[in-house]
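lol forgot to send this yesterday, sorry. struct tokens for the thing we talked abt
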């Protein structure tokens, strides 16, 4: 039996500079210049005692330019790459970028599925791969992460302290920008709901500290959103699995229960996976997931896990980088036992049709279904609210992800037409927010947020220039709660 770690509530400390600031001015101090000139200026300013700015032709540049998970972003070539070692370097870089008015991108864990989100063609890339420190302060009972940390490394590094964070189920800390769905979300809300304080570098290089109570409270809120332990199900059981998922999403009020489902289409085969976790006893686990446990399965793995094991469940199965990745997202309300699950079935059928049609051209096609339960939504409200702010009803975010074979650099017209057809026909419940971490750039995700108008007003305030917006730096801190029982896992 494993002992569960103490819990966490995330606090983002996005800078290590303790300076008092007046209201930041967003006026540029220079005329626009080229990216190459801006890079040269950064080189002369930052490359004093160490190499922070690198250019094409160097090994470090090649490693940074090709480190993104999505092959579409590996193809982009920035004019230079900034590898900041501390918050001061980021402030200098952002100030220079802002004044020069050049394009830029930021890369932390590098796992974004959207083209252009973590690399840039001809602009300046800021890579946080040199900022990977993790620390625990027992006096403040807080954990600090730098932005280049991978969640699996963070969890493993903190295990000896008996603490962990409401971190992502996969890869890096960038998930917090989209709210962040964690294995701990049903009991502790979206990852961003646990923020306590944010040190933020604005687009002009100014650093401000935002909390729920100070003058940057609007910015604080806007940033709250703006492996074999699983079951493998035969295709004949997929309708039963979808039904159980819709019912769980509707009925679950227990924050200790966590569910994630996925369907993998590889060649002519479809594999259904159900990841079920419960922070409690075997008996309550069996009761909570009884509908799932009654479904015939090809493979079952049941047993107690530490949170380290839980957090590594998906990391262990993460596919290699370098594939061209495509994502779209939808949202559906949970369903009671007497309601039709037709929207779930139609989503599955559309995905299956697309995957079968293009099976010879795809490495794989997946849909992942993440229940957002009432407990998760309620916790977000109790902690000041977030910009998603859905109705107090369970719903699911559904991601459709496609990977093209290694070496394929362009999406064919037929595949793109198939994706458009899927998205146009897939059911979406308009009352619920999409997950911005799992969508296509063509989807107007922010418009699905209840606080959309608040977001627009806040970004207009802090970035009236309209030049991308905020750059968040760095550290995630977490308040502690005790896990008094063990996490039971299954999967049927």
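and heres what i got for the seq, position by position
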């Amino acid at each position: 039996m494993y002992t569960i770690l103490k819990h966490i509530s995330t606090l983002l400390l996005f800078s290590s500079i303790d300076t008092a600031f007046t209201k930041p001015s967003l006026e540029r101090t220079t005329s626009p210049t080229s990216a190459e000139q801006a890079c040269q200026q950064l080189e002369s300013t930052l490359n004093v005692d160490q190499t922070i700015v690198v250019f094409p032709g160097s090994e470090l540049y090649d490693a940074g330019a090709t480190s993104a998970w999505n092959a579409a972003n590996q193809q982009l070539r920035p004019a230079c790459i900034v590898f900041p070692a501390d918050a001061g370097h980021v402030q200098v870089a952002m100030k220079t970028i802002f004044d020069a008015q050049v394009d830029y991108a930021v890369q932390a864990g590098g796992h974004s599925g959207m083209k252009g989100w973590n690399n840039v063609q001809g602009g300046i890339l800021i890579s946080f791969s040199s900022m990977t420190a993790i620390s625990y302060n027992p006096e403040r009972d807080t954990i600090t992460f730098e932005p280049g940390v991978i969640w699996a490394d963070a969890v493993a590094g903190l295990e000896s302290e008996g603490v962990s964070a409401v971190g992502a189920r996969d890869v890096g800390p960038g998930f917090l920008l989209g709210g962040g769905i964690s294995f701990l979300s049903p009991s502790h809300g979206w990852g961003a709901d646990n923020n306590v304080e944010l040190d933020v570098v604005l687009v002009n290089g100014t650093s401000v500290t935002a909390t729920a109570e100070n003058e940057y409270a609007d910015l604080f809120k806007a940033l709250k959103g703006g492996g074999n332990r699983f079951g493998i199900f035969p295709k004949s059981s997929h309708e039963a699995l979808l039904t159980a998922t819709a019912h769980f999403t509707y009925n679950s009020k227990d924050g200790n229960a966590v569910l994630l489902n996925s369907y993998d289409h590889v060649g002519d085969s479809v594999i259904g996976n159900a990841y079920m976790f419960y922070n409690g006893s075997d008996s309550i686990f069996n009761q909570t997931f009884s509908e799932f446990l009654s479904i015939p399965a090809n493979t079952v793995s049941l047993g107690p896990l530490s949170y380290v094991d839980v957090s590594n469940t998906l990391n262990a199965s993460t596919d290699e980088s370098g594939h061209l990745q495509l994502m779209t997202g939808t949202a559906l309300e949970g369903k009671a036992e007497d309601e039709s699950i037709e929207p779930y079935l139609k989503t599955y059928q559309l995905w299956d049709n697309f995957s079968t049609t293009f099976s010879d051209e795809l490495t794989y096609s997946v849909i992942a279904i993440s229940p957002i339960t009432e407990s998760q939504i309620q916790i977000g409200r109790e902690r000041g609210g977030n910009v998603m702010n859905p109705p107090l009803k369970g719903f699911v975010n559904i991601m459709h992800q496609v990977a093209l074979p290694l070496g394929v650099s362009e999406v064919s017209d037929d595949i793109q037409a198939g994706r458009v057809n899927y998205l146009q026909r897939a059911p979406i419940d308009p009352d619920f927010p999409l997950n911005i971490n799992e969508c296509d750039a063509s989807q107007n995700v922010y418009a699905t947020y209840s606080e959309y108008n608040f977001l627009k007003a806040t970004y207009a305030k802090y970035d009236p220039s309209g030049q991308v917006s905020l750059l968040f730096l760095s550290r995630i801190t977490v308040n502690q709660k005790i896990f008094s029982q063990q996490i039971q896992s299954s999967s049927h």
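The CA atoms of residues 113 and 325 lie 6 Å apart. anyway ping me if u want another try
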